[in-house]
Amino acid sequence: MNPLAPEQAVPQTEHDTLFTTPLDKAARFSFDEQVVACFPDMIRRSVPGYGQVLAMLPIFAKRHCGYQQQTADGRRVSRVYDLGCSLGAASMALAGEFAATDLQIKAVDVSPAMTEEAKTLLETHYPEHDIEVMTADIRTLQLEPCDMVILNLTLQFLPADDRRALLDKIHAALGEGGILVLTEKTHDFDEQQDAWLVERYYDFKRANGYSELEISGKRNALENVLMTDTLEAHHERLAAVGFARHTTWFRFLNFVSIVAFK
Fold this sequence. Notes:
globular; Rossmann fold; disordered N terminus
C-alpha cells in the first residue's frame, strides 16, 4: 500500500463561508448540517498541520498496535477508537494503510449530522473494513479493550471538569503498549508569547483566504465552546491518569499533538 497523502484522508466538500456575514453576538458554534457541509474546507484552512497529523496516525498504529483484541468470530485485530471523529478523516487515514482484516475501528461523535455523513463516507471508501460509526457522548460511552485511541481536536470541546475522567477511562481501556494520540489547540502561560502565537495563527488564516470578518466571527462563535489548556496542563493530566510516558511529537503555532504510552 502506498503512504496516504494528507489530503486524501479529508473528503472534499463545500467552501467554508459560514462567517462571511455578521452573526448575532450570542450565536455559538455548533457541529450541525451547515458545518458538516463545509467541514473539510474549514479544517484545511483553520488547523495548521492537520494533514500531517492524519498522515502519521497509520505510522504510529503500525508501530504500536499489537493485535491484542479479539473479534466475535475469534480473529485477532487491533481495535482503535476515533473519539470525536467528525467526518471520519482519522479513521479513513488508518483504513487506507491497513488491510480490512487487521483493524477494528470504532468512530464516535456526539453530532448526528457528523456521524451520518461519516458513515456514508467510510462505507463508500472502505466497505470491506470493520468500521463502526456511533452517535454517542464519549464521556458516557463504555470503551472496549483497545490498542489505540485518537482524540483529534476533541478534548477542547468538553467541559474542563470532564477531561480527566475521559482520560482515566481511555487509560483503563488501552492494552499494555497501547497509545493515545491527543491533538489540541493550546494557549501559552506567557501572555506575550501567547499573543504572538495567536496573531500568527490569524495570519495563517488570512493567508488561507479568511477575511477579518470571518476570523472575528468564528472567534466569537467559539467563545466558551472551545476552551484550551496549556501544553503543560495536558502533560500533567496525562501523568496524573497513569500514562508512564507522553511526548509532544508535533507543534505548529498553538496546535500540538501528543502521544501517550500505556
